[in-house]
Amino acid sequence: MRKGEVCKDMLASNALLMLMALGGLVGEVLGDVGIGFLSMAFVTSLACIGAAYAVAATGTGAIASTTEKPELFARALIFVGLAEGIAIYGLIVALLIWINLPSLAA
User: Fold this and answer.
1) Which of 10, 37, 61, 76 has the fewest CB atoms within 10 Å, i.e. is most exposed?
2) CATH class of the structural domain 33-98
3) In the chain, where are the structural domains located?
4) H/E/C letters for each residue in the chain?
5) What pTM was estimated for this model as a whole?
6) What is the pLDDT of residue 35?
């Protein structure tokens, strides 16, 4: 394994451990509503991280293809827009969780 892969694995495992500890703490203190807020944050952050990665990958390819053939700009822009849609879907899921929070509190 390379140095960067080990660092990514350590970061992922630390994030998972923190999430597990925070989830238990929030669950004890706030109950189901706290878990709802935690899941909203989790969904939004993962969707935005995924969208950022997708936009970086497609944006790089879009700029490279536009440099060689400028007429491909519109097609490349469509793929970057589709990658941004991942973050919007994450926000929609977070809003759906937020709408259902009052039913969890009762």
Assistant:
1) 10
2) mainly alpha
3) 33-98
4) CCHHHHHHHHHHHHHHHHHHHHHHHHHHHHCHHHHHHHHHHHHHHHHHHHHHHHHHHHHHHHHHHHHHCHHHHHHHHHHHHHHHHHHHHHHHHHHHHHHCHHHHHC
5) 0.67
6) 78
